[in-house]
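[recover] target loaded
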């Protein structure tokens, strides 16, 4: 099934679920479970949260074409298990984190969201991975007034849309990421000709559109574009077409499976040797390793959180804690995998956001995630913080460039705050 068909099915399912939600949303303050509610907190929703418990639900592609992302919830669960065992949970509440598999299929994501909200009665949806899956579920989550917190997708609409206040992103949005690459090229290759491979959905189009907009008025030009569908078996045909453009820069806007394919195809095309930029979501060591490290030397990307295999963090307090607790609470998971560190970082971000909530309610979490003020998260790069506010629903908008050398990524340059460099992002 092609993505367009998937999206159509997802949209239909989402509309039906939204109608169901409108009819069955119920009253405020349901299932309080003994949670304290006084003053301004009275009457607010406390489903899934009690004096000693907090239930969250995450939706990931544990199977299917984006299954590499299945490492993320392992890092999240390790963090929550550590906090539950050694810090008495979050605010005295032990966190139960339920993980569901949608196979990167939007209709399945809607089905799992409904199961988590209506049957498991979670307090919040914490991490829905992927732009298509989150697009399919956010109408339902917002109709039910269930926080959909720190979704694992960088689509700009999570921060610019005003009709879905219960949904918010976490990682740098794709427009901000595109701005970082554009600024790098303007400085290092001001006359570059760029060929682009992108996923044919909101994710790919968002990053490509932001890239083109950031290049307006410069000497850098996009001279070739090729898209792919998540149902495609390979992107080799697209890569051969792009090679024919003779562009001197290749922008690889893909998810992990197709990122590996594009990197491998680039290595085989001996008559084409462009500067290869791979977007952050496909820049994991697990994507590069199957291609052969000798074939990905000098590939560049951008990041915002610490890489577990970067020796500069060897004595970093948070990295030492992360490594120790991953080995204790997720003994089958390799702490060196960056997606595990991503999960740890986003779980830590949720912890701080929940602690800052003025009410231990769904409304309290919603308000807290939209009122973050330079929140320090130790697993993020120095200089990268969480900030949101009125008219700004983008928690992270700073990144730093990195280059693959030897068997790891090496940071270079300074952290780029795209808010200051380019102004606010609008959808």
């Amino acid at each position: 099934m092609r993505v367009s068909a998937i999206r159509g099915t997802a949209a239909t399912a989402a509309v039906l679920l939204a109608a169901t939600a409108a009819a069955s949303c119920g009253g405020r303050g349901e299932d309080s479970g003994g949670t304290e509610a006084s003053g301004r907190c009275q009457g607010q929703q406390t489903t899934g949260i009690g004096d000693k418990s907090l239930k969250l639900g995450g939706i990931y592609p544990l199977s299917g074409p984006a299954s590499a992302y299945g490492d993320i919830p392992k890092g999240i669960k390790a963090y929550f298990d550590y906090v539950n065992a050694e810090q008495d949970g979050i605010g005295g509440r032990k966190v139960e984190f339920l993980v569901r598999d949608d196979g990167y299929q939007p209709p399945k994501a809607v089905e799992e969201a409904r199961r988590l909200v209506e049957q498991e009665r979670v307090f919040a949806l914490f991490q829905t991975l992927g732009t298509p899956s989150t697009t399919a579920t956010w109408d339902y989550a917002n109709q039910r007034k269930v926080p959909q917190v720190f979704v694992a997708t960088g689509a700009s609409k999570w921060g610019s849309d005003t009709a879905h206040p219960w949904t918010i992103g976490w990682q740098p949005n794709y427009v901000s990421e595109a701005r970082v690459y554009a600024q790098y090229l303007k400085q290092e290759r001001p006359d570059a000709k760029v060929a682009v491979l992108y996923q044919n959905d909101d994710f790919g189009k968002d990053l490509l559109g932001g890239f083109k907009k950031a290049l307006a008025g410069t000497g850098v030009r996009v001279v070739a574009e090729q898209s792919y569908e998540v149902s495609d078996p390979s992107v080799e045909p697209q890569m051969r077409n792009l090679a024919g453009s003779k562009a001197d820069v290749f922008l690889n806007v893909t998810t992990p499976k197709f990122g590996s394919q594009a990197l491998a195809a680039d290595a085989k095309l001996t008559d084409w040797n462009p500067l290869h930029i791979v977007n952050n979501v496909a820049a994991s060591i697990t994507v590069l390793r199957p291609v052969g490290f000798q074939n990905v030397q000098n590939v560049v990307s951008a990041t915002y959180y610490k890489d577990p295999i970067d020796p500069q963090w060897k004595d970093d307090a948070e990295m030492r804690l992360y490594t120790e607790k991953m080995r204790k609470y997720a003994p089958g998971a390799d702490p060196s995998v960056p997606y595990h560190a991503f999960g740890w970082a986003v779980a830590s971000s949720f912890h701080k956001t929940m602690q800052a909530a003025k009410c231990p309610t769904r409304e309290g979490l919603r308000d807290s995630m939209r009122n973050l003020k330079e929140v320090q998260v130790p697993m993020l790069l120095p200089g990268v913080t969480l900030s949101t506010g009125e008219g700004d629903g983008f928690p992270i908008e700073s990144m730093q460039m990195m280059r693959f050398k030897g068997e790891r990524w090496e940071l270079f340059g300074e952290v780029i705050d795209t808010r200051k460099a380019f102004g606010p992002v609008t959808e």
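[recover] notes: The chain is about 40% helix and 15% strand.
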